Inverse folding.
């Protein structure tokens, strides 16, 4: 298993290899093979989101990932009884609790923790007891971060989507404001003893400022890397992201 000391980790999300497979049916392209290639290219972990409607990752993918991976699996999941049972059966290295709406194309925002504090505290307790590292996907909001700390989460993953969207739209005032908020909230979460991760929508053009936050220990990136792999190959696409992350940290 990888020695993580002093290194900004890269988790590669393989969901959209499964999206491509499911568009036609059958077994190809195989997301587990993508996970293995990502390992070889230097990924420190693999992320997979098993959704209620199984639109991309399916149950057998999780079975095979648990049997195959040498790096940790980060299992993204909604806070439902079904997903809790699956996580407790497999006991992945980490579970990241995310909001989920069936009609959304991708996760649209951070989890509302403060409003569901008691429910979520009870939900994550068995996961922690089973040895899973519990992460909460959350906006850069002090109230939500404080609530994540109170319910017993060990990690927060900051939603970088608004920052990335503003950059893509050329709204640099909003982009810079979102970036500064993430910077402040990374420091705040760290002060509470939470490990800080970040992800959603990051690209070669947007990763450097986030990777430079000293409190951020891991970035989770998927859609962009899978898309870029069409042109570069998965290994070179990951290697370039790794290079940018390391340069930002240096």
């Amino acid at each position: 298993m990888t020695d993580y000391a002093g290194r900004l980790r890269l988790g590669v999300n393989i969901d959209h290899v499964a999206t491509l497979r499911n568009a036609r049916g059958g077994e190809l392209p195989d997301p587990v093979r993508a996970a293995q290639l990502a390992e070889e290219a230097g990924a420190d972990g693999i992320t997979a989101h098993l959704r209620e409607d199984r639109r991309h990752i399916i149950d057998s993918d999780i079975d095979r990932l648990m049997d195959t991976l040498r790096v940790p699996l980060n299992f993204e999941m909604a806070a439902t009884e079904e997903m809790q049972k699956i996580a407790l059966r497999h006991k992945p290295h980490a579970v990241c609790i995310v909001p989920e709406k069936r009609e959304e194309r991708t996760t649209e925002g951070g989890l509302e923790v403060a409003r569901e504090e008691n429910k979520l505290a009870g939900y994550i307790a068995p996961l922690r007891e089973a040895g899973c590292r519990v992460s909460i996907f959350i906006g850069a909001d002090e109230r939500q971060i404080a609530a994540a700390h109170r319910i017993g989460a060990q990690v927060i993953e900051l939603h970088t989507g608004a920052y990335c969207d503003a950059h893509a739209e050329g709204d640099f005032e909003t982009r810079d404001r979102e970036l500064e908020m993430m910077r402040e909230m990374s420091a705040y979460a760290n002060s509470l003893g939470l490990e800080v991760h970040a992800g959603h929508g990051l690209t070669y053009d947007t990763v450097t400022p986030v990777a430079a936050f000293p409190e951020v220990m891991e970035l989770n990136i998927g859609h962009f890397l899978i898309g870029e792999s069409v042109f570069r190959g998965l290994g070179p696409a990951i290697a370039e992201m790794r290079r940018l992350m390391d340069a930002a940290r240096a």
Strands lie at 9-13, 45-49, 73-77, 94-97, 133-138, 155-159, 195-199, 216-221. The longest strand covers residues 133-138. The first helix runs from residue 15 to 24. Residues 1 and 75 are 18 Å apart (CA to CA).
